[in-house]
Amino acid sequence: MRRFFPILDWGRSYGREALVNDLVAAVIVTIMLIPQSLAYALLAGLPPETGLYASIAPLLIYAIFGTSRSLAVGPVAVASLMTAAAVGGLAQQGSPEYLGAAMALAFLSGLLLLAMGFLRLGFLAAFLSHPVISGFITAAALIIAAGQLPPLLGLSARGETLPELALALLGQIDRVHLPTLAMGLLVLAFLFWSRSRLGGLLARIGVPAGPARLITRAAPVLAVAATTAAAFGLDLGGAGVALVGEVPRGLPRPALPPLDPGLWMQILVPALMISVVGYVESISVAQTLAARRRQRIDPDQELIALGASNLGASVSGGFPVTGGFARSVVNHEAGAETPAAGAYTAVGMALATLVLTPFLYYLPKATLAATIIVAVLSLIDPGALRRTWRYSRTDFTAMALTLGVTLVAGVEIGIILGVLASLVLHLWRTSRPHVAVVGQVQGTEHFRNVLRHEVVTDPAVLSLRVDESLYFPNARFLEDCVQDQVARNPALRHVVLMCPAVNDIDASALESLEAMNARLRAGGITLHLSEVKGPVMDRLRRSHFLDDLSGEVFLTQFDAMCRLSPGLTRATAAAPRCETDRQALAGAAR
Amino acid sequence: MRRFFPILDWGRSYGREALVNDLVAAVIVTIMLIPQSLAYALLAGLPPETGLYASIAPLLIYAIFGTSRSLAVGPVAVASLMTAAAVGGLAQQGSPEYLGAAMALAFLSGLLLLAMGFLRLGFLAAFLSHPVISGFITAAALIIAAGQLPPLLGLSARGETLPELALALLGQIDRVHLPTLAMGLLVLAFLFWSRSRLGGLLARIGVPAGPARLITRAAPVLAVAATTAAAFGLDLGGAGVALVGEVPRGLPRPALPPLDPGLWMQILVPALMISVVGYVESISVAQTLAARRRQRIDPDQELIALGASNLGASVSGGFPVTGGFARSVVNHEAGAETPAAGAYTAVGMALATLVLTPFLYYLPKATLAATIIVAVLSLIDPGALRRTWRYSRTDFTAMALTLGVTLVAGVEIGIILGVLASLVLHLWRTSRPHVAVVGQVQGTEHFRNVLRHEVVTDPAVLSLRVDESLYFPNARFLEDCVQDQVARNPALRHVVLMCPAVNDIDASALESLEAMNARLRAGGITLHLSEVKGPVMDRLRRSHFLDDLSGEVFLTQFDAMCRLSPGLTRATAAAPRCETDRQALAGAAR
């Protein structure tokens, strides 16, 4: 019971101190969340109030099911972009069908997340490697930022990829609305200044670091308030500046998304991708914040909590939600102690829909565009490409491919190709494992690569260390490798496969080993194994391989050499240790 | 030059003895190949003569480019079934479009194989794991055998899956043609008898084992000759027994396949699958036979040879070909010494198109059906399922899924799902690696799993051996694992990750290690590594990880314990060895 309802855990010991801390955090997060939720609704191509709606029910639900004490769920930039991409092709923006499809997307995402949670399929999220996520997030952030240029310029161009956006912008470039642009640049300059300088200024006038950080984070609210007031006072709407306009007042009315099987089939793949990307984003934030206070996150329960939150978003007129990075950090730094802080934030957002909506009429869209640009630019990590290039060419390839394809072909193709590329590259890499010929380090029981260390070897014994699990992509490679070595060494009488790095031998590799054993035996060469891991040995015992093996299985490579090349080991090591070792380990070994 | 034209290698030393041996083998293979090539053409839904054509040009071309001295290429059962499945949906059987599509399929397969050969992509074939191939071949053989029941019963039912075939057969079951059935059963009984008993009979009358095996293999030819004669003498055609009918006399006329881009797009995926399945089948046969005589096969050159052979099949009116198992074994056992034997076989087949075609008019189709059934039943390996189940549940799952899906949904979906399943199962397996807490085996320098061996440990030092490469599917798993262990052991001051089985650390895992290092450091725990492999260490040096690591990297786990828990190691091992070891290895190590 407590596994599925973490609220029963922390709710029991909920005291006055936690209440105060949670309330303070909730007020701060609410202030930050109002402009964000409006902006991300516009980014998703939806009416602004849906952003407010998506920040009420999901937060209440996450407070019941979530295991993170700091995570703040709601609309986020990347999921909103993915929503726009998924729904954009199905319905006309602004139509009831468009909103219905977005609600259905949230519903289906919720169901998929719940199913993954109950089936404990959280490991599926691991298929998104860090380089793929990093490349994808950077590309998505660039598309989002570029997509904010039209509202900032007073234009209406739209596009889901960089080339589409660039073409649409070029076609309208002669219609730039200068008052909108001037105001947008002003907001942008203010937001950048408050990010980089406001903190220092506040410190100089004596504000402590913690509150200073929170004030800095609230800068977008100041921009929203100021430009809304200016639009009202100076009649910017009359001057042609695009305003948010009428926002319905009041709480969302519960409604089911359209139950159209054709629609659901069309959004199945996007829903799966939004679920997985959102989950990965959310769990990373949750784990990072939990580690700071030595708390635990349950990855499978998080799937359930996010699934339920998305179902809540769907039936309350919202769109797909997940845990957001910036607002969770603010929640954490503002002192939130339990998920109750999220519930209080939901109450704050509900009050906003009741009280603030009349004022939102005068909010310029360019202000929201500027806040989005500043928010997503922090998602772009230009150093990641360079770091990954230096560390691993295959990881770099996956990252660059994801980034490039996402930019030019869109978010869905980008992430699918990225995942496929990382899988194929992984298999390619393991299909040619590192295989080292090893020899004994003089005076020790260690065996090392003959190419890297000074070691002694016996021409009659070939010791090969395979630095990879033996499984289908590399099964034939090892056969080829041994065949090459055998052809090169006419004096050879024994082959020892040293297996400390062989973590698994699958059925394909077992067949290869059987073939190798038969071929070597036909050529008068004995095949041995050494340092086979316990689980691998357990499994080999369930096959006929050990009965057919022409040689032996040795506990250590040193034991193997003691037996197969006693002269050599006696010369290089303290001979009696062979026997001692073997006796000491014999019981434990087989 | 010699790499691409192996004929330049063996052709130089081609002598009289090899000529005689190759000629003998060619005669025997030709006799065996005539009924086979007719039968597989019918299986592919094509006119019988195309089978003869597909056994001429490809053999000549393989003799120039092939590296196997025993492989006999030509039409094979599984590729013919896949051809029927790919082309069946595109054109009416018997129409020129059907033949054109089959030729285009061979052409595209040839191009794909050539491209894979030049790009050295032979490793892609490794994606077909043994369990997937085994399940697929068994299912294909069952479908092929079931598909021969209609001609054996004198019916015309067709189907590409078992359910389709069963339904079609049930619909016609009242129209069984008894004379056809009687003759078919007679042939079937004769073929089974010759397989199981003829060898013993021949041995008893003094025929040596070698020739006896070859005579046994020629039994289908005897059946073909006898039933053809019976059909002619007894006018079985007039009695309603289906005969092969008119077969055009003479050599194939060269012609390009239709160059229709729409058609080529439709057959791209089937062509890729036929290429890869055919290649895997062919290379396995080639390597098995080469190993018997200690010869080498070049896997990339084999791609080129098979690609060129398929291009040859395409432009000479044939369909996709590959190396066949049974006929290659016969070729090998009959004494073929070089690929020239294949060229002589091609000459024999060409003579057959000139001389034998008038006689084929009277060949009953039921005879060919019977020879196919007997041939493919040897491909079915019922023990494989049981063996794989005992050895590995994941491999069994992949095998059973491939087998089941192929039987009920067809060859294309079957193999695609099989490959995907084996990939996902592999990732699932490695996403939860075996992680062992290790301790020191008394009196040795060995460290083993505390759960399997009697070892000593120090409560302040946690030594974890990770039995898997660290990469994206398991990056987060290790973090969770360490966090659990740390939460359980309050006395902990050091964590040592023992990495002899870590063959790779990708960018995702590197980020996890960095996060783990930071979290442990914040909790006053030092993170160390031991027994890191050379290539992994080289790569870590290219990142910032080693600069940030709170602890050290030790060459051996014994060194790590000497430093971190000197009391323990002194008590359990000969203490001076610590220093000796460290000095002896210091130079070579870092």
Secondary-structure map:
2 copies of one chain form a homodimer.
Chain A: H1 7-12, H2 16-43, H3 48-53, H4 57-65, E1 73-74, H5 77-88, H6 96-118, H7 130-147, H8 149-153, H9 162-172, H10 178-204, H11 209-217, H12 219-234, H13 261-266, H14 268-292, H15 299-315, E2 322-323, H16 325-333, H17 340-355, H18 357-360, H19 365-377, H20 382-391, H21 393-409, H22 411-431, E3 435-441, E4 447-449, E5 455-456, E6 461-466, H23 475-488, E7 494-498, H24 507-522, E8 526-530, H25 534-541, H26 545-548, E9 553-554, H27 557-564, H28 566-572, H29 576-589
Parallel strand pairs in A: 6-7, 7-8, 8-9
Antiparallel strand pairs in A: 1-2, 3-4, 3-5, 3-6
Helix pairs in contact in A: 2-16, 2-17, 2-19, 4-15, 4-17, 5-6, 5-14, 6-14, 6-15, 7-19, 7-20, 7-21, 7-22, 10-11, 10-12, 10-19, 14-16, 20-21, 21-22, 23-24, 27-28
State the shape of chain A.
elongated
Regions of chain A with pLDDT < 50 over 5+ consecutive residues?
A: 573-590
Number of discrete helical segments of chain A:
29
Instruction: Round the mean pLDDT of chain A to the nearest integer and report it.
Output: 87
How far is the N terminus from the C terminus of chain A? 44 Å
Supply the number of structural domains of chain A.
2
Task: Describe what you observe in this structure.
The structure is a homodimer of 590-residue chains. Helix content of chain A is 64%, strand content 6%. Chain A is mostly helical and 590 residues long. In chain A, strands 3, 4, 5, 6, 7, 8 and 9 form a seven-stranded mixed beta sheet that branches. In chain A, a hairpin with a 5-residue loop joins β3 (435-441) and β4 (447-449). In chain A, α10 (178-204) runs antiparallel to α11, α10 crosses α12 (219-234) and α10 (178-204) packs across α19 (365-377). The longest helix of chain A has 28 residues, at 16-43. Chain A is elongated and about 95 Å long. The two termini of chain A are 44 Å apart. At the A-B interface, α14, α20, α21, α22 and α23 of A face α14, α20, α21, α22 and α23 of B. Chains A, B: This is SulP family inorganic anion transporter. Chains A, B: It holds the Pfam family Sulfate_transp. Chains A, B: Keywords: Membrane, Transmembrane, Transmembrane helix. Chains A, B: Residues 451-571 form the STAS domain.
